[in-house]
Amino acid sequence: MTVRSIIRLIAVAVLAVALGVPGAGAAQAQPFPDQLDLPPGFRPEGITIGPGATAFLGSLADGDIYAASLRTGELTLVCEGPDSPSVGLKIDQQGRLFVAGGPSGTGRVIDIDTCDSQQYTFASGQTFINDVVLTRDFAWFTDSMQPQLYGVPLGPGGGPGDPPDFVTLALTGDWMQAEGFNANGIAETPNRQALLVVQSNTGFLFRVDPETGVATRVDLGDTLVTGGDGLLVRGNTLYVVQGGLNQVSVITLDADGTSGTLVETLTSAEFDVPTTVAAFGNSLYLPNARFTTPPEPDTDYWVTRIDR
After folding, report:
1. What are phi and psi of 28, to 5 degrees?
2. 108-140: pLDDT as tens digits
3. Measured between alpha carbons, how far is 240 from 245 in angstroms, rounded to an integer?
4. What predicted TM-score, i.e. pTM, was given to this entire model?
């Protein structure tokens, strides 16, 4: 049975519970677990949730991709990694995973059924391909060490362009490259007309024009999202993961993403340097990278579920 078939079965079961289908009541009585345990030594960073209640996670250790059932916590090895990190990742409706490759300077697009992949070499030398967002026309990747984004064009049905066809978008305008980790998490504005990029070392949030690369600092008043990592937009709400602070800042944005207001800060006693975030229903799921814990082959890692 393919990974996509497993996902479809999970989706059918979840729908049956939601509709009150006879025989689904027992499943309904079982709440989704608040913690998903990952393999020892896994070193998670990115998370994405696909069709059905299935999360996909990549390993910083070797790039392995695992699927985790949000309902049961059951783990499945989807694709073995290339012995280089899998950092931020997103899945599309066709079962393709777009994966940022960290210091390798690459991005990959993986078919979760076959593990066939295309690799894009974006940069070399001082680089860290950190996160990715899927828009109508491009998959945009951030580089935490270079003031630029990389765009893989998406054709009909979301099919990615050939490896030589990516574009490099220099960040200009208000963007000022600083010492340390810069561009990190990336998302679309609520109206899907521009990109949002968080600069981890300054705590600034930027609105980026995907046509020109001009970056404008988002007006958050006195709020800084220092150490900002993964971003998630749902409606007009932006969730910013701040792993070093073990919290998620919840910001209400205007439609075009030019200004926002901090409305809430979410945290959990189970956080241990969460990095990225994905949503399912009224829940948020955050992998804990445990960056303050020396990684060993038997180090424990997990995903924490919180309400949103």
Report:
1. -65, -30
2. 999 999 999 999 999 999 999 999 999 999 999
3. 11
4. 0.90
